[in-house]
Amino acid sequence: MEDEVVLLDIWPSPFGARVRIALAEKGIKYDSKEEDLSSKNPLLLQMNPVHKKIPVLIHNGKPICDSLSIVKYIEDVWNDRNPLLPSDPYQRAQARFWADYVEKKRAQARFWADYVEKKIFELWSKVWTSKREEQEVAEKEFIETLKLLEDQLGDKTYFGGDNLGFVDIALVPYYSWFKAYETFGNLNIESECPQFNAWVKRCLQKESVSKSLPDQHKVYEFSVELRKKLGIDSVGI
Questions:
Q1: Residue 14 CA: distances (Å) to CA of 62, 91, 133, 152, 195
Q2: Distance (Å, rounded) from C-alpha 60 to C-alpha 72?
Q3: CA-to-CA distance for 129 and 139, rounded, in angstroms?
Q4: Where would you tag: which of 121, 130, 153, 231 has the fewest CB atoms within 10 A of its CB?
């Protein structure tokens, strides 16, 4: 019997985009249910009663929450196609070594994915939602963080090596928000972090990424309206 896969999602969400990319990389067919930001769908409340947030992957009636947990679940369940984690035995052994230090039996890649999850999201939120004085500190740290990730990338094609991997999927969805970052934060990511920008372009050459990410301009317009609703001055517009 064919698997029933449903994704509860919201189109501008970088976290939902992670799941969309992972499903596309694996070639998994799924039914996408768009949630409403202004109200909580009964299905969402049923499937994620604790946090009541998207994304939620429902696989054969069972919910999986948290975007990185979902991506890892997708890798574990459909591990016979297009791996998102290293296949080399040594690399997997190294990943297990780092797992004890980083997060309960997770791969080395999970360390950087979690770093992206916590650090980038924290700074991302401050850059586009904060007042000017708070933004200045966040902007500097945001660029420093991207430069650190550039160092981690090194001369590799992707963070996962020659193939798109776990960390790439965790990070690249933020690209859709770059226009908002740059406008509200007075940033120029391309000039400040050229290696990072080149990596983004390589990711976008993959159909699984380009078709899973929302348009930057559409996200920017969405963020303008959201800032208004949050009562944040339109600094930098």
A1: 23, 28, 26, 21, 21
A2: 17
A3: 12
A4: 231
Report the C-alpha gap between 180 and 15 in whole angstroms: 17
Per the document, the length of the chain is 237
CB contact at 8 A, 144 and 131: no
Each residue of 131-185: pLDDT tens digit?
Answer: 556 666 667 777 888 888 898 889 999 987 899 988 888 889 989 988 887 887 7
The bridge status of strand 5-9 relative to strand 31-34 is parallel
**CA dihedral angle for residue 173, residue 177, residue 179, residue 185, rounded to 10 degrees:** -130
The token duo for 147 is 């430069």
Q: Give me the amino acid identity at 182.
A: E
- What is the spatial distance between Cα 118 and Cα 162, in angstroms, rounded to a whole number? 25
Residue the block writes with tokens 């604790």: 50
Give 120's DSSP letter.
Answer: I
Helix (H, G, I), strand (E, B) or coil at 140: helix
Asked whether the beta carbons of 202 and 160 are under 8 A apart, the reply is: no
How confident is residue 120, by pLDDT bands cut at 50, 70 and 90?
low
* Structural contact between residues 57 and 5, judged by C-beta atoms closer than 8 angstroms: yes
